[in-house]
Amino acid sequence: MAGNILTGLVALIHCYIVYLEMVLWDTPRGHKTFKLTPEFASASKVLAANQGLYNGFLAAGLIWGLYLGVAGFPIKIFFLLCVAIAGLYGAATVGRKILLIQTVPAVLAIMALWLGL
User: Which distant-in-sequence residues (6+ apart) come within 8 Å of 40 by Cβ?
Assistant: First the structure.
């Protein structure tokens, strides 16, 4: 139960990231969230939308795994590992805050699922 709740939380986080990257990137909120100048945000808007799409695929995979119930265990683990690894890379290349936003929730969900919680 806790594993599915945490998996759902990770999926929701990624749905919000999709919204930030695909819709709000070139807005004051996007600028503040990602520490962007308006000029950079405008120039990188298409790249951010592409990145948002990939985050959407992560969320979709997690939702699919939840939908499948017990049979979705390996799917949830796979997509949570993808999120955790992407978070590690983001923390190493962009900022440590990503570690807390992506990697920690994904790892907690993996642990809870693995332990049957």
Answer: none
Dig out the tokens for 21 from the structure: 């990257």
d(CA 62, CA 32): 28
Taking the C-alpha atoms of residue 23 and residue 78, their distance in angstroms, rounded to an integer, is 27
Q: Tokens in use for 35?
A: 């520490």
Count the Cβ atoms, other than its own, within 10 Å of residue 53. 12
CA end-to-end span of the chain: 6
Three-state DSSP class for 44?
A: coil
Whole-prediction pTM = 0.93
Residue 88 confidence class, pLDDT cut points 50, 70, 90:
very high
Tokens 């120039």 correspond to what residue?
Answer: 43
Interacting residues of 29 by C-beta distance below 8 A, sequence separation 6+: 20
